[in-house]
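Tokens as discussed.
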């Protein structure tokens, strides 16, 4: 019995240690390879238009870009979640070990508005400024994140995250990240980053498309069949409750609880 307990603890510990990005729920994504001869990416900036409003539902998902160090355990990202009936924007830091999560202030954003995200390194304090701005209004959400144990951020990502039935995604079926700008050790390296398209959890024909060094899109098909079509809402909520989805899942569960209490 004690031997079985030890094995169970070993398996549990291994699963915690190996949890890292790319995480479950990432669908199509692009990952960049920093050019040789540099220590870290010191600046990454991208711009995109907020997608069309999806049909009203209780689905939550987000396009975003971000960065990780080589071990994929410390993600910094400006995010743009759909919360079932509206869009929002803010920045997030997610640390896998020990688990830690922080978000900047969330602001509402309308379909068609322009978002510009920025991740910028401060060498003096060994930290990054995470910033997200609505260009039409100038409203900005920011936070600073210290580099855990002096880790160096080297892996840029562009991602569409959280798995739902295809009809729940925006009807424009595309998001385009453009005017991509990158600096490595303070030097412009935009054209030297090698981007690669990948899929983690296949869904709705999600695909990352490397158009050029400054423009990358993610596309999908809202009419496609999905392996998630057969899941209940409760199962989908639990499936998508990791990372930034936790607060959306909690709010959704609270809604169910309130309805149940009234009945």
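Sequence:
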């Amino acid at each position: 019995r004690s031997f079985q307990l030890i094995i169970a603890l070993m398996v549990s510990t291994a699963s915690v240690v190996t949890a890292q990005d790319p995480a479950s729920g990432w669908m199509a994504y692009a990952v960049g390879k920093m050019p040789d001869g540099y220590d870290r990416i010191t600046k990454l900036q991208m711009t995109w238009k907020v997608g069309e409003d999806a049909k009203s539902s209780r689905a939550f998902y987000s396009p975003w870009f971000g960065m990780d160090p080589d071990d994929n355990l410390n993600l910094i990202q400006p995010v743009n979640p759909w919360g079932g009936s509206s869009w929002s924007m803010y920045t997030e830091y997610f640390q896998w070990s020990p688990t830690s999560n922080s978000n900047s202030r969330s602001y509402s954003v309308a379909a068609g508005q322009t978002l510009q995200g920025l991740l910028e390194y401060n060498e003096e304090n060994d930290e990054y400024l995470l910033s997200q701005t609505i260009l039409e209004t100038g409203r900005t959400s920011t936070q600073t994140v210290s580099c855990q144990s002096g880790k160096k951020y080297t892996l840029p990502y562009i991602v569409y995250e959280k798995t739902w039935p295809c009809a729940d995604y925006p009807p424009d079926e595309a998001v385009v990240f453009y005017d991509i700008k990158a600096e490595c050790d303070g030097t412009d390296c935009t054209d030297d980053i090698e981007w690669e398209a990948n899929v983690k959890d296949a869904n709705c024909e999600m695909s990352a498309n490397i158009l050029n060094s400054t423009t990358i899109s993610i596309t999908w098909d809202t009419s496609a069949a999905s392996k998630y079509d057969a899941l209940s809402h409760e199962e989908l909520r639990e499936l998508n409750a990791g990372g930034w989805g936790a607060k959306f899942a909690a709010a959704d569960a609270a809604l169910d609880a309130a309805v149940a209490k009234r009945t």
